[in-house]
Amino acid sequence: MPTIMIRGAKTQYDKGVTYETIAKDFQSKYKNRIALVYFNGKMRELHRKVSGDGVLSFITTGDSSGHKAYSRTASMMLVKALSNIAGDKSRDVHLKFEFSLGNASYCSVFGDIAVDEELAQKLTEEMEHLRDSNIPIIKKTYPIDDAIELFRRQGMKDKEKLFQYRRSSTINVYNMDGYYDYFYGYMLPSTGYVDLFKVKAYEGGLLLILPTQDNPNELEEWQEQKSLFDQLIMGTRWGELVDISTVGDLNEQICAGNISDMILVQEALQERRIGDIAEMIHARESVKLVMVAGPSSSGKTTFAHRLSIQLRSFGMRPHIISMDNYFVNRDKTPVDEDGNYNFECLEALDLELFEDDMCDLLDGEEIEMPSFDFRSGRRVYKGNTMKLGPQDVLIIEGIHGLNPRTTQELPQESIFKVYISALTSLNVDEHNRIPSTDVRLIRRMIRDARTRGNTAQMTIGMWKKVRNGEEEYIFPYQANADVVFNSVLIYELSILKHFAEPLLFNIHQNQPEYYEAKRLLKFLDYFVGVDTEAVPKNSLCREFVGGGCFPL
Fold first, then answer.
1. What are the tens digits of pLDDT across the range 422-453?
2. Partner of 421 at 20 to 30 A CA spacing, among 185, 397, 484, 542?
3. Is 162 inside any structural domain?
């Protein structure tokens, strides 16, 4: 009889008992639903069985991994519900999860079926039936050829294509009442675990609205973000222009020798978008300050340089300024709850000095611009002066550019705000999205290793704190932007793969970041790699892999 340490106490269970059974014994001690477990440091799904002694801890829907398992299971339920409603037409009617939009996933529906509020209501009701039936979700490992044949019978051409390029010999497939699917990540043991959801018709597609990780026991009202939606749809349309919407499509193009043309088309589309933004700025004659803000590794620096070139083509004289030069001296930098310097918060900036300098420049005065010496932790002056002429414009890059407090003392007609982020439109397959946060983490890991000497373990270890800062200081203000720019390139993960894998393989099993590194390596294994030869020197991708033409 195995002895299991749970919450500091030893408990004995019969050999072969499932983690789900154990979780039920402890559920009352947790406010959120238990979704997964850690057993001896390894994450396990609840259907798995105990085979020996060990230490057990629980993962709930309020944790990142547990919330993702909830979302995946809800996604499978939605696809199953559509299949049930389509009936005999189910092989020809299919659904694709396009991107996240707040607490919802936006989905396109293909085939001979009307996509409207009536369908959304039917899908909600069918999902409720699946939930109330508490159908087991059975996981089975198949030889890859058998799995491909299984997906072929269900009309899943995207999965056929995806697994043609996988090096593994087996695939884990989930079965929900005779419907088979593949999901990248762990699932809940049955449909009864997914108790809160709503399907809503929106902009020709569907929204699957789910609880958030911060509030997993309540279904919050969905808030429309039209400008963000427009940018995400634009990224999807760009993929369609080069016939790429999934990783299988991308790999197929690479193996067919079309990578160079595909890169050039993607870069041209992005350059055209930057040109459109420059034209918008030029059309507002009063604009003198262009605030460029976005989360970590969104490509703000390269974007600022490329926007500068486009503005010059309109006869303007842009000057790039980093808000990091307005950091307070190190002895005045706020600290977090662990006593570490908090460079993410607004109080880490000398806002009074920044606004005074900007007001003086707008009044036509000449000022000496500060620089921040990160080694000494002090702001210094090196005789760099600036005075704005009629055609001059400042491009000010920093994470707080959209926060109203940053520019509250400045004339608003002189300000144009750009929000830049990495809004991934490429999918693993139709039912597995690529999280934008994964792209940014991989970007940052490569850049920090190259420019700062940081290990992948260091970058992964601090990522949660970076993400918390973004949630508090950046994302709440994205709606203040005049325009949103998407920095993701549909081909970039095939480029980043070569740089990221050696860094991730250097994280060892006894290190706490090992399982995240293992997850990212499995993710990158979907992609056929491409070298950087075809990537232009001014590409946003160069900010991370190096070899670019802009000073960073």
1. 888 889 999 999 988 999 999 999 999 999 89
2. 185
3. yes
